[in-house]
Every structure is written in C-alpha cells, then in structure tokens.
Amino acid sequence: MIRKYTISIFTENFFGLLNRITIIFTRRRINIESLTVSESEVKGVHRYTLVIKSEEEKVKKLVKQIEKLVDVLKAFYYINEETVFQEIALYKVSTHALKEGRNFERLIRDHHARMLTVESEFVVIEKTGHKEETQELLRQLQPFGVLEFARSGRVAVSKPMKKLSSYLREMEEEQLVTA
Amino acid sequence: MDTLTKTVGAESKMTQTMSGAEAVIQSLLAEDVDTVFGYPGGAIMPIYDALFDYQHFINHVLVRHEQGATHAAQGFARVSGRVGVCFATSGPGATNLITGLADAMIDSNPLVCITGQVASHLLGTDAFQETDVLGVSMAVTKWNCQVTKAEDIPGAIAKAFYIARSGRPGPVLIDITKDAQFGQLDFSYEPCEMIRSYVPRQKLYMDRAKEAAELINNAKKPFLLVGQGVILAQAEQEVLNLVEKADIPFAWTLMGLSAMPTDHELNMGMLGMHGNYAPNIKTNECDVLIAVGMRFDDRVTGDVSKYAKQAKVIHIEIDPAEIDKIIPADVPLVADAKEAVGALNELVLPNKHADWVNSFREAAAIEVEKVITQDLFPQKEGMTMGEVVRSVSQKLNGDGVLVTDVGQHQMAASRYFQFNKTRSNVTSGGLGTMGFALPAALGAKLGCPEREVVAVIGDGGFQMTLQELATIFQTNAAVKILILNNNFLGMVRQWQQLFFEKRYSFTEMVNPDFVKISEAYGIPALKVERRENLDEGIKTMLESEGPFLLEVIVEKEDNVFPMVPTGAAVSDIRLE
Hints:
The structure holds two protein chains of two kinds.
Chain A: E1 3-11, H1 17-27, E2 32-39, E3 46-54, H2 56-68, E4 72-79, E5 83-94, H3 102-110, E6 114-118, E7 122-129, H4 131-141, E8 146-151, E9 155-158, H5 164-178
Antiparallel strand pairs in A: 1-3, 1-4, 2-3, 5-7, 5-8, 5-9, 6-7
Chain B: E1 16-19, H1 20-30, E2 35-38, H2 45-51, E3 59-62, H3 66-80, E4 84-88, H4 92-95, H5 98-106, E5 111-117, H6 133-137, E6 143-147, H7 153-165, E7 171-177, H8 178-182, E8 184-187, H9 206-218, E9 222-226, H10 228-232, H11 236-246, E10 250-252, E11 267-270, H12 277-283, E12 288-292, H13 298-301, E13 312-317, E14 331-334, H14 337-347, H15 354-376, H16 385-396, E15 401-404, H17 408-416, E16 425-426, H18 437-447, E17 453-458, H19 459-462, H20 468-475, E18 479-485, H21 490-499, H22 514-520, E19 525-528, H23 534-543, E20 548-553
Parallel strand pairs in B: 2-3, 2-4, 4-5, 5-7, 6-7, 9-10, 9-12, 10-11, 12-13, 13-14, 15-16, 15-17, 17-18, 18-20, 19-20
Antiparallel strand pairs in B: 1-8
C-alpha cells in the first residue's frame, strides 16, 4: 500500500552528508516530498526529517541503506499515526485585503492563524498545521490575492518513548563487544 | 633531505613537524602500506615530491591510466587481504578512478584512494583540473571526505583505513587540497578503532544461531551457498567443518570461488547464470538453504519469485542492508561469517544426507555428458575456451591465482579452473568491468609475488586497458597473460544469437596483432592457433621467468552453457 512515511535520520554534522542521503532516494526513484534538517536533543547530532510516498517494503530497505552510511547514527520510519508532526506556512497578502473587513479577520481567526507583520503594501500571515490545513487556508485566501506562499517541510517527533541517547548507548556497547 | 635519516612508521607519540604531503606518506607507513598504485599530476605533486624521499619504503607502481591503478589495487587487496592504495591527481585523474571505485564498491574490496585537489581558495571556481570529486565519487564509495588543512590529514587517513577494511569492506576516497599538502603540522598518528556512528559488525544473537542450527539439524536436504563473505571473514575452515560435520553439499558464487578446494567431495560447483547444473536445480529442491556471506545477486537467483520458494532460508551476512533485500530470510544472522558459522558448528549435530548428496552427483553427470565433455574434449577442429583454461589449471596443480576479465572467457575460466587455496580468484563480479583483468593481475602479482598469477582475458576486454602492459614491463611483474581470442565480443554475440535472432550488431572485432603489441612493450609473446601446439605454448608461458603473453585462437562462435536465461527460474537452466 502506498502511503506517506516520515523518515527520521540522526547523523553526525558533516558536510556532504545531505548529498549522500538524497542519492539513496534518487537511485531508487523515490521523490522526496519534504525535507528539514535541524539539531536534535543530543548535542552534535543532527536530525533529518523527510516525507516520502511509498510502500513499507521499499521504505524498510531504504532505511537500511541510509543507516548503512558511515556518518549516520540511526534511521527510523513512521506512518503518520506514529508521529506528532507540524508544518509552518507563510502567506503574503496585499494590505488591500484588510480593507475587506470582517471576512478577512474571521478567516484568520477560524484557521488559528496569526498576523506576523503589517506593512503598508502587504501583510504576512503565519499558520502552523498539517499540509491539508495550510493548503485550505491558502485556498480561502486566494480571493484576497496571495502575493507569495511558502510552506516548510514537516517537522516530526515520534510517539515511541525510547530515547535517541539509549540507541547511541546500545551502538557503543555493540562496538565494544565486537571490537 | 637525506633519505636515510627519515623515521618511518612514526609509532611513537612524539610529534614531528612536517608538511601535509609528508604526513600522507607517514600515515600510510603507519598503516603498513608498502605498495601504492598511482599517477602524478599537478594537484598531487607535493605528495609525489614527499614520496620521492620514501622510495625505499613504499613501492610506487606507475600505472598508465588511473583506472588501472584502481583495478591493480583491487587485485592486490583480493589476494592479500590488505587494503589497496591509489594516488591520483585532481580533475581527470580523479574521474578516471570512478569505474574502479564502482567495481570495488559492489565487490566489497577495501581501497583507500587519495586524490590531489586544487588549492582550497580555488574550490568551486572552475579552476584548472578542478572537479567536484566528493560529489562525483559519493555514489561509488563507502565513505569519502575532503581535507583542506594539513593537521586533519593523519586523522582522515586513519579513519579511511578503518572504514575501508572493517565490516563489509569497500573503497574510500580522500581528496586533499594542494594547500593542505603544502601546509605544516605536528605529526602524530593514532589508528582509528571506533566511529560512534558506525557499527561494522553486530554481535551474534545466540537465539537466532540456535534457530538456525535447529533448522539444519532437522533438514533432509540442506544446501549451503558460499559467498565472498566467507573469504573476507576468513571463515573457510569453519564452513568446511560445518558442511563435513552435517554432510551438507555446497556451491559457491562467482565471488566465492576458491574459498574451498574445487575437488572437495561436497563442492557441487558454481551457482548462477552460467554456473553448474546441479547447484542451480537443487536450489529449488533443497529444504534448508544456508547462504553465507553472499547477497543473492540477480545473476545467482534468476527469477526471484521462483527462487528456493520451498526452502527455509538462513542468511548469514555482515551487512544488515542485505538481509531481506532480495530473498527474505527465515533466520537472518547479521554477523561476521567466521563467528556465526563457528557458533553453528557447536550447535549442529553430525548428520548424513547420502541420497541428497548423491542426487547432486546424478545431476552433475548430466552436465558432464551434455556440456563438459564437449567443452574439455571437443571433437571439432577449433579450440574451446574450456579446454585451454583446464590445461593451464592442470599445469598449475590448482595452486595458481586466476584473474579474469568479463565475458565468455570469464565464465569458462570460472567453471574450469581448479583451486586449492583460498584468495585465488580475482574477477569483476558485480560490476562486470571489461578491462579489469590486466591491471588486476599486476596488482595480484604484487600482492602475492610467490604465486603464479594467470590473467585470462578476452580479445575485447584486453583492448580496454592494454596500456598497462607498459606497467607490467616496467615493474617486471611476472604476470602470465592468456588471451582467448575469438574475434568477437563473445558474450554479447551469444545473447544476440539466442535472444536477438542472430542479429550480430557490432560484436565482431577486427583485432590488432596481439603478439606484436606485447613484444613492442617488451613482453615476450606467442600465438597458438592449433590444438597440437597448445600444451607447448602454455608450458612456454608458465616457464618464462618474467611476464608473458599467450594468445590462443579459439572457436569463433562457441556459446557458454549451461545458461539460466534472464528472467527464468534457476531450475529452468538450459544445457544447450
């Protein structure tokens, strides 16, 4: 069954690694729908969050190939229900829209969005949520004239409680046993 | 600087101020490197200048093309079990390494390639001979890195050697900018013993080993497959102990060739597309399939949906990514083959499977009748590749190292060369790189100078890297070169005959005079065109002290059989 998977990859912070990771997807013709990179809770460990559409069989093999990379500490895959995730979207709308009065304000409020800045020519609205939600706000803002729209990649934390640090400890023990 | 005053190995923790270039050489010495295959050029000149003072400690082999350096390093690594080392300059020097890196990657050969790079301030400016070597080599290396500071050189090299040889071995590339080579550092060398993100081998789960042993103990028709992992893990004796104790017939993959003696009574031959009849059909009859250190290449499995469906599969493999990649394992053992098979030996009970073993011999007899007799004792005028290879093999008493290129001759040689010692087969298995054999044979000879090394090469592949005859001449490495000449790209021609209605599209070759070419390079040579001269020719080749080239004209349109056609099940192997 083809569905969305979130792939979380924990790595050393070396340059070139992003390339090494993405060519694994390219080689298997898997399109990356979104990608974010940030620090993780462990100092010096970086976290990649990728979203792809694929089948579990393929994703399993893909994650093994990623984990095989020397500078990758751990890689996991999740279906949506196994993570808590968010995306952020920014909408730049002409200030004229404000003059539409109640409709516009109501729209912002109903969507739990907020106004980040009001300039003489434009306003910037921020909304966090799942893609469907930020997409819906975009649709409803279109009549007001959307000058620019940008949506971030997914950020996600997993529901299982095992901590990255305990995985790292296990890896270290494994290396000591087999050294 | 006086060569005699150089300290070598730098084992003490005392630091010494030197250039990055000299630190490269010192680091290699600390890793016990005594042979480097390479080619100089602008961006690696500081390293070559440093090497000039260390010629007595490092034998630098000047190849004639960087691809030759990689294949030579592969041959060296495969026979010796050591890490092969290459030098190349930036730009074209580095890009010429790519085929060899890809070959080493898919065949798990430990290589460390050091490339020079333009000075760091020129990176990204399209400077002369600048290429994004990290980017270009990323897909074909186990790991790579770029060094722009002299002080980072020893650490990078230590890491490179550790990664190249540990776990599932593979090629590693270090790109060193010219300013890093010129820069000064306080040198000290610490071998790398651990990288926190990298677990080269996992600990063996004894519960799993017990499950595997139980399957084997209850098996009526067990069958064991020997891959290159057996050789890499030095698990040859453990595997022999296991198959003898439990009376398990075994077969080897192309890369597993020579792990055990050819004439071992349980050795049923080679798997795969042009492997032997019995092991292919028995794959689909066995009840427990024990795969050791192999990855179920498509040339081994044929149609995976019809591969060993009736069997429980035990997969012993050091690389976790290989488990369930092609053939699902009922009992996966992610471990070093030596450790895993050693543990199984403790748990497996002595057993006998006389009828089952005998059924292999019955199947083998069919192959002897339909294929092997014609290959080895042909009634026709033209010589077969099989009879030539077998004749060489017999004169070596199974002690020679076989190096093969890619194509029909490779399959004939793999089928008919006989082995007595492990690490005696060097071939391009996964990538199928034509042009591999000649440089690989040079490297193999330098990796085991006391052994006879015979390169069996087709007329097509030979012409892809024949410039390395010059390297062989210059080093006087006593490589025996056997060209099996059918004036065709024989394997492609065979496929055209069988699957493309004999439309021989661009496979016939008009060849140069190979004897003259060889002699022009200073290597004595001989051409044999008739069977009655074959023995004499082979003797002349093997008895010559230095390198020698023997060209044998073989039947123009012979085919390699048996054959599992692409997309067919292994049990549908064709004998004619």
